[in-house]
């Protein structure tokens, strides 16, 4: 079943974020001591306000896949146009549920919501391994955005 996450899902989403981070990252960085509290605060607040919209896929009552979308309202203009953009992040499917189409169905739920919600575009920074997955679900490399990166962060 694919559905929107609720406040009741936050504890499970915390654990998935931890799993996702250490699965995907050759980790030699310090572990953040306040991670659980910071994640829960931001996700709870974001779900309540609508700033973050989170889709989850459940199998036997457990979350096995999720996609987070941060919504950013555009500054209105005096013409009719789309009202927001979406930042797609924290896309994850548990390894034992991959290659079953679950992550694709969650991503399709996101793009269907974007169409209904007058979202102009969805941005995502895919890994090389996931690039084809996003292309299969309608995302395209347009080479348009310019990006500023903090000079102290690894590229």
State the helix count. Answer: 4
What structural class should be given to the helix and strand makeup?
Answer: alpha+beta
Which percent range fits the helix content? 25-40%
Say what the CATH topology is.
Aminopeptidase
Element-by-element helix/strand order: EHHEEEHEH
Report, as a whole number of angstroms, the end-to-end distance.
37 Å
Shape annotation: globular
CATH architecture: 3-Layer(aba) Sandwich
What is the beta-strand fraction? 15-25%
Rg calculated over all Cα atoms = 16 Å
Strand arrangement across the biggest beta sheet: 1-2-3-4-5
CATH class bucket? Alpha Beta
Average residue pLDDT? 91
Q: Which segments are poorly predicted (pLDDT under 50) over 5 or more consecutive residues?
A: none
Describe the main β-sheet briefly: 5 strands, mixed
Total strand count, please? 5
List the keywords.
25% strand; 4 helices; alpha+beta; five-stranded mixed beta sheet; Aminopeptidase; 155 residues
Walkthrough of the structure:
- The mean pLDDT is 91.
- The chain is α+β, with helices and mostly antiparallel strands.
- The chain has 4 helices and 5 strands.
- It is globular.
- It has a single domain (2-136), classed as Aminopeptidase (3-Layer(aba) Sandwich), CATH 3.40.630.30.
- The protein has a 5-stranded mixed sheet, sandwiched between helices.
- 19% of the residues are buried.
